[in-house]
């Protein structure tokens, strides 16, 4: 499917996040260890927030991450305290810029690993459920973008966990109506630039991998000679499709059917369950 990374903490160069780690996102674009495919070469995207800007910046490209020279140039010069990065392996939709993640609406960013099974059969019903005022902003043809706009329709800007629960609930209702046994497979990340939410869920209960880092202050005590750790602020939080390295104890798996909320360096694990949008 895809691989992604979300970072929140003191400002760092994007290069430090997506190129320098041992199992960096760029390495994963060629040699993913835990993905459905080893290669994720159908595009790359980065979203970031900078102080004083009302909306996040977004870079999206159909080039593979391992060979995109513009991505390398941007990564070496952009510094941010909130970064989302994504490498794409398409599940059927076209390889084009408008289908690359992260997707943006106002201050919000969204990225997804997984798929909505049977999307071609469900697409008309799902798109018609999007708020008419939001519909014109859908630019691409992916299930991921439609899921984003369904979440916006159900109140993402006010209550992200409830909105995503309703969006997923709708997809499962429509999927069942079309005879799809397991409509949803997702690890999703969304942020408004201040807080970050990551969701791990699948209808089948066998979700794609998702991890978050252990407490940085604890890791600094355990590995006092590790220079990488001492460059990170204690409030640093990283959420990834697969660990960026092999440091023992550095990564914790996000449980099945869980929403991970990160706010100002504090994190909370919240049970996630789809809800009927009628409720």
UniProtKB/TrEMBL annotation:
SUPFAM superfamilies to which the protein is assigned, alphabetical: N-terminal nucleophile aminohydrolases (Ntn hydrolases)
Protein name: Glutamine amidotransferase
Keywords noted in UniProt: Glutamine amidotransferase, Hydrolase
Record has Hydrolase as a keyword: yes
Family matches, as PROSITE patterns: GATASE_TYPE_2 (PS51278)
Entry keyword Hydrolase: yes
InterPro entries for this protein: EgtC-like (IPR026869), Gamma-glu_amide_hydrolase (IPR052373), GATase_2_dom (IPR017932), Ntn_hydrolases_N (IPR029055)
Gene3D superfamilies in alphabetical order: Glutamine Phosphoribosylpyrophosphate, subunit 1, domain 1
Transmembrane segments: none
Domain Glutamine amidotransferase type-2: 2-279
Enzyme Commission number(s) of this protein: 3.5.1.118
Entry GO MF terms: hydrolase activity
Residues in the signal sequence: none
Top-rank taxon, per record: Bacteria
């Amino acid at each position: 499917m895809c691989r992604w990374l979300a970072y929140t903490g003191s400002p760092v160069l994007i290069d430090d996040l997506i190129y320098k780690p041992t199992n960096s996102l760029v390495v994963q674009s060629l040699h993913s260890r835990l993905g459905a495919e080893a290669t994720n070469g159908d595009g790359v995207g980065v979203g970031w927030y900078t102080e004083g800007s009302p909306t996040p910046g977004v870079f999206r490209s159909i080039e593979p991450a391992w060979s995109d020279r513009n991505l390398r140039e941007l990564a070496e010069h952009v510094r941010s305290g909130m970064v989302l990065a994504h490498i794409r392996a398409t599940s059927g939709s076209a390889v084009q810029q408008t289908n690359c993640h992260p997707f943006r609406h106002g201050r919000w960013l969204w990225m997804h690993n997984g798929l909505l099974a049977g999307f071609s059969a469900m697409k008309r019903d799902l798109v018609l459920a999007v708020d008419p005022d939001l519909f014109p902003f859908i630019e691409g043809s992916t299930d991921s973008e439609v899921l984003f706009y369904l979440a916006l329709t159900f109140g993402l800007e006010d209550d992200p966990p409830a909105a995503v629960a309703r969006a997923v609930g709708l997809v499962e209702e429509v999927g069942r109506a079309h005879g799809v046994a397991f409509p949803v497979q997702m690890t999703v990340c969304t942020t408004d630039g201040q807080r970050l939410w990551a969701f791990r869920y699948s209808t089948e209960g066998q979700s794609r991998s998702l991890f978050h880092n252990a407490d940085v202050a604890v890791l600094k005590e355990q590995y006092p000679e590790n220079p990488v750790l001492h460059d990170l602020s204690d409030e640093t939080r990283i959420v990834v499709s697969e660990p960026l390295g092999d440091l023992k104890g550095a990564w914790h798996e996000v449980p099945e059917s869980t929403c991970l909320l990160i706010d100002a360096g504090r994190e909370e694990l919240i049970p996630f369950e789809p809800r009927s949008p009628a409720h």
